[in-house]
Design goal:
single chain, alpha+beta, four-stranded antiparallel beta sheet, two-stranded antiparallel sheet, 3 helices
């Protein structure tokens, strides 16, 4: 079942993944991204299942959160300084190299953040 404790577990998972894959310089931003994406999924998705996926793509480190909700996320602006919530995706869009979402066949959606491109060294490992 997804609940707000899922946010902490997702952050720990992404942090450990970044250490294992030597993406240390991207870990903090990746953990911030997954915190925001899982919080939104728990808060807004219709279902009880939230899945986190993190991987290195050609463009860089991607953090992806799948949920059962059919509605796409709403990205608000950062301009409303009086707003108490609803600006997390706009914040991620400013901090990350990309933010978006895709419908998942069979229902639900995947919301993702392209955290950034790691710095590779000559041995093919990520430089920390």
């Amino acid at each position: 079942m997804s609940d707000f404790a899922s946010v902490r577990r997702a952050r720990e998972f992404v942090g450990a993944w970044c250490v294992l894959h030597e993406c240390g310089e991207l870990a903090h931003l990746a953990m911030l991204a997954v915190s925001e994406l899982v919080t939104n999924a728990v808060k807004h998705a219709a279902g009880v299942r939230v899945t986190v996926r993190v991987y290195l793509a050609d463009a860089g480190l991607v953090v992806e959160v799948w949920d059962d909700g059919a509605e796409g996320p709403v990205v608000r602006t950062l301009d409303d300084l009086a707003a108490e919530d609803g600006r997390g995706l706009a914040m991620l869009a400013e901090l990350c190299d990309g933010v978006g979402w895709d419908a998942v066949s069979g229902g639900g959606k995947a919301v993702w953040a392209l955290v950034g491109a790691p710095q590779w060294n000559t041995s093919g490992k990520v430089r920390t």
